[in-house]
Amino acid sequence: MTWTEPRRVAVLGTGLMGTSIGMAARRNGCYVRGFDVDRDVLARAASHGGLEGAGGLTECVSGADLVFVCTPIAAIPELVARALKGAPDAIVSDVGSVKADVVGGVERAVADASRFVGGHPMGGSELSGPEGASASLLDGVAWVLTPTEATSAEAVSGLARWVGSIGAEAMIMSPGRHDRMVAVVSHLPQVASSALMGLAATEEADEPEILLLAAGGFRDLTRLAASNPHLWGDILVSNREALAASIDQFIDRLASLRELVLQGRSEEVERALAEAKTARLEMAAKPKVRSGVAVIQVPVPDRPGVLASLTATLGEHTVNIEDLQIVHSPEGGRGTVHLTVAAQEATLAEEALAGAGFEPTRLA
User: Fold this and answer.
1) Which end of the chain is more exposed for a tag (fewer CB within 10 A), N or C?
2) Digit-coded pLDDT (tens) for 38-95
């Protein structure tokens, strides 16, 4: 089967990610229908995201070209099986944060899983629910696709093209490799954030003023602790073996640094910190530059409204922001914004920002 450009998209589960996908699809000219077992959530998603609410799963997926299952992990295999049956011409995917369990569950649940492509868009936030959704949540993010030997090559290429058309970047890898990597860069940060917040909360029992001393670093590190506990509990348990290995590696690194500190080996402590700093700066301060775009660096103070002012300035001059990254200063109080814009709009963007009192510098 050869898939043409999808025009009808169905979303099962209209929380943060499902509604965001729906909004990105609508922005790309698709008709979007959604369904959620929680009728209130569905109504809020329809109001915020502009999708059409359906009365049931079968109605939602009927006639769809693409179906995305955006529910808790345990429910995905059954819903994928029902979507494959209800939409016989559609590519069906999911957004689960763990892939081996999901893909294996789907292949056990259906006789023909060729139209199912496991997926995981690496976007999101600590927010939950459709009110936090936005099409921009998917702009420029890596969207992992995890086909198996049972997956149709045409389904993979068709979904990959659609992912690229809404502004994300399709990456293809095996389910197991995906799970090992997200254990380090996604699941371990959630565990570390929650553990640190739990430690501080426990300490507060004896030192009630401890959280009053929390500065920006503590708030940055514990931001993920505000995430949905039910959702993350399922994710972490589903990827328990890979996550446990990552936690062990993290503990080893903490123990090593602990010994260096206890032994007063300041030069080696400094070296460890410097290596981590270099790696972090290489990740955050060197935006990926695509052909036909320019990167503009803008120093900004750390105060409410400054980012809104910056983006509004470009909007007033009809300059589209292709990508945006923020690098916070380790000293606090300021930071640097890296803006990616179309190359032909770079001069206009610089002039507009300078006119609004910013100090832009073109990097590339």
Assistant:
1) N
2) 999 999 999 998 999 999 999 999 999 999 999 999 999 999 999 999 999 999 999 9
Whether pTM exceeds 0.70: yes
Domain residue extents for the chain: 8-173, 178-283, 293-362
Nearest 10 degrees: Cα torsion 345, 350, 352, 356: 160
Taken in order 124, 126, 128, 133, the sign of the CA dihedral is negative
CB atoms within 10 A of CB 15: 25
Contact 11, 93 (CB under 8 A): no
CA distance 338 to 238: 36
CATH class of 178-283: mainly alpha
Which CATH topology does 293-362 take? Alpha-Beta Plaits (3.30.70)
3.55.40.10, 3.40.50.720, 3.30.70.860, 3.20.20.140: which CATH number matches 8-173? 3.40.50.720
DSSP lists the bridge partners of residue 116 as 92
The answer to whether 111 and 96 have CB atoms below 8 angstroms apart is: no
